[in-house]
Amino acid sequence: MTAKSVKTEEHAFKKFSKDIKGSNLGGLLFFFGEEQYLVRWAVDSVLEHYIEPGFEKLNCTRLDRQSATPAAVIAQCETLPMLAEKRIVIIEDFPAGDPGSKENYTETEENELIEYMKELPDSCILILTSDVADKRRKIFKTVAALGSCYEFGRLDEHEVRKFINKRLQESGKKAEASVVRRIIERSGYFDRQSDYTLNNLDNDLKKMIAHCDGDEIRSSDADGGLSGNTETHVFDMVDAITRNDKGEAMSILHNLLSSGESWQRLLALLSSHFEIILMVKEMRDEGKNSNEIKESLGIHEYRILLAGRLSSRYSIERLRRILCGCFAVEKNHKSGFLDERLALELLIAGM
Question: In this predicted model, what pLDDT tens digit does every residue of 269-302 receive, in sequence order?
C-alpha cells in the first residue's frame, strides 16, 4: 500500500498575510476559530496597517455582545476617521457567530445588519471575531459573499516549529531542534481532543524563557515551563507504567484526581493510549511504515513515534490483556465491586 499525497488547504493565517500585504482585505472581515491567539494577531495586524500609533482611540471602537446592537454598529461605522485612512469597528465575540449563544440577534436585527453590510462605507472596516461560526446562518453567508472569512484552526508541525523559534528569537534565546521537538511532544498540542492551543504554548514559552539562565533553552527549561494538558500527564503516566515505575505512575494518578480530573476521563485516556500502542505495534508487525500507519489511524506522527517506542516494551498479547483490564474497570465500578480510585490503582499495579 502506498501512502497517498493529500493536498492540504492553505491555512488562514497565510491567506490573511497575503491579503493584507496586497491590500486585498476589503471592508468586512470575520476572524474566528480555535486559535484565538491568531484571531487577536489578525486584528492587531489590521490596526497596525491602517492606524498610526497613538490614534487608535480616535479611530477604533470595540463592541462586545451587549453593546453591539445594530444601531450602535451602524453609528460607529458611519463615524468618519480622524487623521487616518480608515475607521475600524470591532465586534468581539460576535453574537451571530456562536450557534449555541443565547445572545444571538433576533431575525429582525440580523436582517438589519445584513442590509447595512451591503452599504458599508469605504471609510470603515468592520471586523467580527468569534470562537466559532455558524456557517449555515444567513449573516455568515452574507459576510462570506461581501467580505472575507478567516477560520484560524490549528497550525501544522512546520508552523508550530516556526512559532516556537520566532518567540525564542524575539527574546534573545535559541534552542536545538531536539529541544523544540521535545517542547512540541510534551505540550500535547497534537494530541487528539487536546485543549492546548497557541495561547498555552505562548505562555509556556514565556515561562521557559524566564526559567533559562543563558541564551539557550535546554530540556530542563522546557520541562520546567510546560504546563501541558491532562492528556500529556496521562501519557507521562503511561510512560512510567511501561518503564515499570509504578510509584511515579501512582503519583501522577493521585495528582490528577486531586486536581479534579474525573476518573472516567482518566480511564478513557489510558485506554486510548494503550489502544494506539497496540494498533501501532500490530501494523508495524504487518510491515507498514509510519506514513501508512498515520493515514490509517488519522493521528499525528508524534503519537505514532511515541507509541512505537512504548510498544517495544510489550507483546501484543500483553497489550490486549491491559486493554481488557481497562474495559473491566468501568464494568466493576457499575456493579459496585470497587470504588473508582481503588479500581484505577489496581489497574495500574497490574499493567
Answer: 888 889 989 999 999 989 888 888 888 887 777 7
Residues above pLDDT 90, as percent of the chain: 44
Query: Three-state SS across the chain?
Result: CCCCCCCCCCCHHHHHHHHHHCCCCCCEEEEECCCHHHHHHHHHHHHHHHCCCCCHHHHEEEECCCCCCHHHHHHHHHCCCCCCCCEEEEECCCCCCCCCCCCCCCHHHHHHHHHHHCCCCCCEEEEEEECCCCCCCHHHHHHHHHCEEEECCCCCHHHHHHHHHHHHHHCCCEECHHHHHHHHHHHCCCCCCCCCCHHHHHHHHHHHHHHCCCCEECHHHHHHHCCCCHHHHHHHHHHHHHCCCHHHHHHHHHHHHHCCCCHHHHHHHHHHHHHHHHHHHHHHHCCCCHHHHHHHHCCCHHHHHHHHHHHCCCCHHHHHHHHHHHHHHHHHHHCCCCCHHHHHHHHHHCC
Tell me what the mean pLDDT of segment 131-150 comes to: 92
Domains assigned to the chain: 14-151 (3.40.50.300), 157-225 (1.10.8), 230-349 (1.20.272.10)
